[in-house]
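Appendix B, example 12.
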Amino acid sequence: MDNDTTDASTLTFGSLFPPPTSETAETDPILSVAEVYTITNHFINASNDDDTNEVLKKVHAYGRRFHGMGMSGISTSVQFEQLNNMLQDLRDVLLKKSFVSNTTGEELRLHEYEASKLMDLMSTTSTSDEAKCLIPSLKKFTDGQVEEYLELVKKAKLKISEIS
């Protein structure tokens, strides 16, 4: 296979994003828009406005607009710390939850990409059909299994909206 082949449905992201190894799995996460927003917010708040890179400002503005986590009222450092912890908890739960394939009997888990894309879904009313259309690699899961993942995201979004 060509190292520059990119196909999200097979979780192949080309040579710039090789498959994770035991050494890189913990250090190279694929971030959700909400996670990028919290990171850029930290850097922007920690820097002098004149020193803030324009690209960082644009990424932050994009994150603020499209994070989909209902966190528009979050402004204090304590709230951002809570948000960061909640996002990490959600990521951990999504990545640890597993199912057994009905056809092969193998254990199925979300890939980092799939977890971050589920976190990016804007609506708390997303369906398994919608998720599978937007994240084609989820087709390995049954509709009920995807619904369980979506329920975890929905619960996290509701918790996040309570702190904002």
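The mean pLDDT is 82. The chain has one domain: 29-163.
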